[in-house]
Amino acid sequence: MNILGIIFFVISAIALMSVPRRWAVIPLLMGVIYITHGQAVNLGGIKLPVFRMLLAVGLVRVVVRGEGFAGGFNLIDKLMLMLGGWLFFASFFHEPGAAAAGPTFIIGKVAEISLCYFLVRSFCQDLDDFASIMGVIAILMVPIALEMIQEKFTEINLFSKIFGGVREAVVVREGELRARGPFRHAILAGTVGASLIPIMLGLWRRNPRAAMIGLVACLTMVASCASSGPVLSLIFGMMGVCLWRFRNLMTLIRWSIPVGLLTLHMVMEKPVWFIIGRLSMGGSTGWHRSKLIDSSIRYFGDWWAFGTDHTRSWMPTGVTFSEEHTDITNYYLAFGVMGGLLAMLLLIAMIWVAFRWTGQMIDAIPEETDEHGDRFMIWCMGSSLFSHVATSISVAYYDQSVFFFWFSIATISSLAWLRFGLQEESLEAIREDDDPASKMQYSS
């Protein structure tokens, strides 16, 4: 870790420990967004990026200050703990020394995703908190968007020059420069921008200036990455936003999706998941993503119980970091490889509950009292999650992008107390009440 990385970490850590709760996620976000994974400390062979060290600082803050969760411990919280516990248990059934496996690797992975989730749960406790955080995120995206634009002109990644951890030269594919900013892949940079666009639209009524800035910055990120995946992520997110006008028909729409996929499966020459390849644009690897799903079904017996350390036989191509693995470009399958079918189902269960609670929160807010457009903003939170859910079929999140996936689930979980139609004073009573039984009555 160089001197700039050390200074940035120290300043972010001090701010994270000292600012009021509502703003605590901001220094955490700055460390997540601006510092590459190349800035890290090695402790006994274990690499600790600045991102993870700031998560640890955030945990210390929560413990020292006794900052709890709005509405008490809920169902998604329990599912998160179950996922972490199962992944740790399953890690003992992997081969010692296997790449991306084993207890040491899983402890780091579980700590990363669970702290992302639980810290956001603690720092964001109501709609005002969420709107304030998103307003700042909109501003924080501007330097990344500007840097990605300059990548398109200079073919040099400034984050690599300052912090390292990403390639200095910009990747060129089919004549297009693929800017990546501080992220380790251009697709991840564009996906983060695309997933935030629905929320920027939802923020418009509360903070139009920040929403406009965020929209321009995020659209710039999508355009600069020159990848078809983020464009599809944006399309799915905007589809979710547009369905706001048809929200009373969502039951019919939800059931039409599996029925439609089943129909396509019956009429297509190949299985329905090969439609991913047909949706891909330009020179993207849509076929690889379709074939990966096909191979995971074919080799289901190898990984369903506790995951697997051997996926190289699934595909004709491999990865540079291991001779035993292929490129798992699917976030659901990535959990399956780490912890088997149960790990994948726990992830899907959290997503399903988050969608259900999104609808319940909207229903609990009377339309006639919705002066700030909170119902639409909550809907846009669900649309952002839908963008992540669709993207996860073709992208396995890693590096800083992990934070934004779990941020989406955590913010919905944090605001879930709204589905009871509580007033602000009721929430304050929950925060101040030290009786666990009283808090649990508001959780699932």
TrEMBL record:
This chain's protein is named: O-antigen ligase domain-containing protein
Reply yes or no: does the keyword Flavoprotein apply: no
Q: Which UniProt keywords apply?
A: Membrane, Transmembrane, Transmembrane helix
- The source's domain of life comes to Bacteria
The organism of origin for this protein: Luteolibacter luteus
Q: Where are the transmembrane segments?
A: 75-93, 130-149, 186-204, 210-243, 255-276, 331-355, 376-397, 403-422
